[in-house]
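Ex. 9. Protein: Sel1 repeat family protein.
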Amino acid sequence: MQQVSSLRIRLEYRLAAQLLHARWMTRSPGKHRLTMRLFQRCAEAGHTAALSFYGHMLFHRGNSPQDKAKGARYVFQAAYAGDVHAQYQAGRIYEFGCAQYARREEKAVTWYARAAEAGHGLAAERMAEAYRHAHLGLPVDSRRAAQWAALAERAQRSEAGEPIASLTH
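Predicted structure tokens for Sel1 repeat family protein:
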């Protein structure tokens, strides 16, 4: 029964993702409600990508403080499960703080570093900037800034679809 449930959740997630990007009925409130309901069901079932996406949506666009708190919890669940986008968002939550999570620069650095090391270009750029300008409680360190900037560049090339061989030089 667990496999059937897992398959159903994966299928619902794919359907929600396709509905989100479908060009038809772009302004339909019904399509939006259905899509968000599917993402919510998947997130509540523990689907990591759904936790990341739906959590991000709730945190940034939730109508109530409860929605925003649930969104932050979902983002952190996905981040702990290894979702690179959620790890970057966790870094941003700790960098800027919010009602549920106080501003904690050391935790922001931890999450940004995890995301950057997993290939998230914006996280690597943020780490490079932090070392260049002594942000997030880090000292100015041009060598580390250059390392993070190189990692960001490799991540951007990888996202652009460049062959891996070109990433080595």
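Check your answer against this statement. Confidence is low (pLDDT under 50) at residues 162-169.
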